Amino acid sequence: MKFVKKTMLAIAISSVFAVSANAGNLNYNYANLNYVSNDVTGTSGSGLGLEASFGVSDSMNVFLGYQAPSYTGGSITETKVGLGYHQPTSNTSDWYAKGDFRSYDIGGASASGFAFSGGARGNLSDKFELDGYIGYTMLDFVGVNFNGVIFGIDGTYKITEKFGITAGYMSDNDAFGWTGFKIGARMYF
Fold first, then answer.
1. What is the pLDDT of residue 9?
2. Cβ distance 85 to 99 under 8 Å?
3. What CATH number is given for 2-188 in this structure?
4. pLDDT per residue over 132-174, tens digit each?
5. SS3 4
6. Which residues, including other chains, have CB under 8 Å from residue 66's CB and lie 6 or more apart?
7. How far apart are the first and last CA of the chain?
8. CB-side neighbour CA atoms (13 Å) of 87
9. Of residues 100 and 73, more confidently modeled
10. Diameter of the chain by CA atoms?
11. Distance between CA 150 and CA 148 in Å, rounded?
12. Is the distance from CB of 107 to CB of 74 less than 8 angstroms?
């Protein structure tokens, strides 16, 4: 099953490169407010999340994320902050590499570590954008290391130049036993 998921993600990432030439350049200045639904080793939780990206140069952006879904036994808070590098592959798509520091509060216990990933982001049309990535995470949870493959895919439908609806799937099932879905609103600035 892991092979099938990773193969589907690779196909999605490669499809970003086959974009139409009628859409504009990508905007790395945005904020998302999301409803998130996560599953951690068979236990489901849901809540709100925030993601933001700020372009600091033509090829670099800083990004951050926060989510705190509630589970039956409490909440798991995730905070991340990172730096990304992106390079155009056409006037409608970019490849990118990024790294971030992640911190988790799991019922009073802390986990932290780093994640590194790469992928592609592009406009499939003037209204629809797709972003897919694959990477690796290294987490330490009370002295135990959780390392493994992470991957995800996000899609954004642009209602206007400033607002859109976004949805995505992400997983670090190899490392922490976690998968998640999100749906929300994006504001470009």
1. 52
2. no
3. 2.40.160
4. 999 999 988 888 888 999 999 999 999 999 999 999 999 987 7
5. helix
6. 49, 50, 77, 78, 79, 80
7. 39
8. 2
9. 100
10. 51
11. 7
12. yes
